[in-house]
Structures
1.
Amino acid sequence: MFSLIRKYRLRKLPPKIVGLMPARNEGARIQFAIKALAQHTDAIIYLDDCSSDDTLAHVEHCREECRVKRILTKVAGYGMNPPTATGCFRQAVKLEAHTSS
């Protein structure tokens, strides 16, 4: 993972702030939350944690307007476990996010 960080730091790109938003069954509130996060980030990665409601439809609806660049969906388990966190971090690095150690 740290080799990915070094690779992008060497490119001398301006810092990019990427917000990670995990959620589960937040259909009624997710658009408000994503729009608020979009005011402070250059891109958003959304992680759906096995939602059984219309959360994903709401995210898709505001995807372009709020710069949601990736939508990751889990099919089993709940929460942000280490493999999921690492996957989100790798997606952020691919979007040339600013990383600090």
Note: The chain has four helices and three strands.
2.
Amino acid sequence: MGQITRAEIVSILSTDNPGARADDVAMYADAFLDYREASANIRQHGNIVLHPRTGAPIENPYLKVKAQASRALQAIRRLRNVDRLWKREEGEGNPAPAGKGKGKRKSREG
């Protein structure tokens, strides 16, 4: 499977969330791409990287990008049907942020 494009993400989200606001779809697509890019960078380079100028070990800046994108994805709660998008990505080795792409929540009752 190749890289998913922003247009494909918007298409999947729009199809699976009829009546969704265009701005919610656009924000989710952008945050999804940021999350995916950050995850790939962290997998490739690790949590600690060398500062490009000094060579000193530093925290990978993409950790903050990933955390911010994850918060943005979770904040856009009006888009309920995102599982198909995350399942496609998980098939490519990209983990979903907490609470996304894992199916329905279990009830705390009974």
Note: Residues 100-110 have pLDDT under 50 and may be disordered.
3.
Amino acid sequence: MGIVRKVRNFFTSKAVLPEVLDTYRHRIPERILVQVAFDDQAKRWVAKIELPNTKDYLCTESDTQDDLTDMVNDAVMTYYDVPTTYVSHLAHFQNPLASKQNKHEWKLA
């Protein structure tokens, strides 16, 4: 197989490569701080995600608290450029509490 074909297959392959998966696993933080609030007027959950070792933060929103957990995970995976092919193979952050307003550390589970 020629080098051009190998390179093309590498970039177009949908296979999950263990060494690439490890790279993404080490890229995402083990813990994040998430401030969650319920907007009574808009009837929506909102989250501010503080990332470690950076001054960056992300914001996301959802209709339900369960969906908000998914949105937080999606925002973090997007921020760290994790392709969708690899997302399902990585641990995801879990919301430790279910209350209308809190700021807690979320850990990978």
Note: The two ends are 41 Å apart (CA to CA).
4.
Amino acid sequence: MTDIVERLRAFPAMYQNGAMWVMSTKPEPLTVEAAAEIEKLRAERDALKEDAARYRWLRNADNWSEHGPCPLVATCEDTIYGEALDHAIDAALASGEKDE
């Protein structure tokens, strides 16, 4: 079975001509729009999955070492991870701090 986006783009438009239904050689504009929206949402989902994987790695204390990513978050003396990191990020987001 082909992907839904491919099927939507290939799905012919149907219109009524008198008592007969006629199949167009072009797809229905709505199906083309739906296919584009699905592709856009898939790209957004994939980007969010990458961000989530990075974040899960960052918040896992097992990935931290003496020379690990602690300078990215705080000084090494103030290193936080796990739920404490979640709360710090939530607080920063709530206060409007930029993430870049």
Note: The first strand starts at residue 12 and ends at 17.
